[in-house]
Amino acid sequence: MNAPEARAGRVLRRWKLWLIPGVLSALVALVLSLLYMGGILTPSDSLHRLPIALVDADAGPPLPGHSAPLGAELADAVAAGTPPGQVQWQRLSRERAQEQLAAGKVYGALVVPEDFSRTVAALTADQASARPVLLTLTNPGTGSLASSLASQITQQAAHRSSRSIGEQLTAAVPNAPPTARLLLADPVDVQVQQGHPIARHTGLGLSAFYYTLLLVLAGFLSANLVHNGVDTALGYADSEIGPWHSRRPTVPINRTQTLVVKMVMTAGLSAVTTTMIMLATVGILNMDAPHLPLLWVFSFCACVAVGLGVQAINAAFGTLGQLVAMFVFIAFALPSSGATIPLQATPSFYRFLGAFEPMRQVAGGVRAILYFDAQADAGLTRGWVMIAVGFVVALVFGFAMTHYYDRKGLHRMVPSPS
């Protein structure tokens, strides 16, 4: 005789039914909120050695009473006037600073031009033909927020220097007319220019981040689709589409061979997903993307590395693996990617994650290809190395776990439905 059909109300009254989903949902919501919001709320307060170039090209001559050109004094004052540890001022020549900007090594630059001392001296001699200029150079390829933070810091330093110079000039010309005193009080014209311009269709330097996010999501989702599809096809999971439910006969196969099937399929489908991403972003949406063959190969390898990592985690943790993989490749990776907020403007926990989290490594390589002419030291070499490391780790971890389960006799075999 068939047992009576259960009612929803009776099922819902079982407190144990609520326990695991409730605890996991609460923990996931709590951790995600702390991770995502903790990395973005105080970028200015979290600054740690933000790299900015400081260029003193001032050729003099020294002003009366000074032993060195004004630019040297200004550069020393700028470096000393920044709170310790917040900014990594890099004293560079103009040519070297341009190279660092073009490689994404610095987020901006403050430049003292060659004629700075001469134009300042002309103000006190009433021979001024133009105001002295300080240049602040931005680097939008490093990300809009990173470039903006650097620009704010360099502009503030330039304006402080202008007021300091103004005090010296006002004291040197005490009888200047009121109009001239206004000019002498804040004499420097602070000009903002792009130090390394990027193309127009780049989302103000955010296209690298969103393209990277697409690669990681594609690898993550494709791997999970393959994982569930293979388990269904081999008879280890039910197939349910709408009201239709079925279960295939179980295919006798061990965990290691199942993982081989899933990883090979994941690698093969990565070629399809990579092509579709490039077709949509570059072909249809016209994203500016130089070095297309290199971009495709790098994107494919990134998708494969992410996908194999997901398969390894699923093989090790079973049903819980999809949640673990979500934290590894999405939850921890997004706030530590350094693609929207530079790691130098995040708390130390995110800088630690950024050393190995996959999205950080992929974003560096994509940014180098899209904005910095695919230079190896712009992040491309590190991207390739870390993708290779991720590939090896996924294979070793995944097959080590499945081999262990198989050797212990922890098989997935279940009776086939009659």
UniProtKB/TrEMBL annotation:
Give the InterPro entries listed for this entry: DUF3533 (IPR022703), T7SS_ABC-Transporter (IPR051328)
What is the membrane topology here? Multi-pass membrane protein
UniProt key word Transport? no
Domain of life, per lineage? Bacteria
- Annotated ranges, domain DUF3533: 26-388
Keywords in alphabetical order:
Cell membrane, Membrane, Transmembrane, Transmembrane helix
Give the chief site where it resides.
Answer: membrane
* Protein location: Cell membrane
UniProt record similarity statement = Belongs to the ABC-2 integral membrane protein family.
Name of this chain's protein: ABC transporter
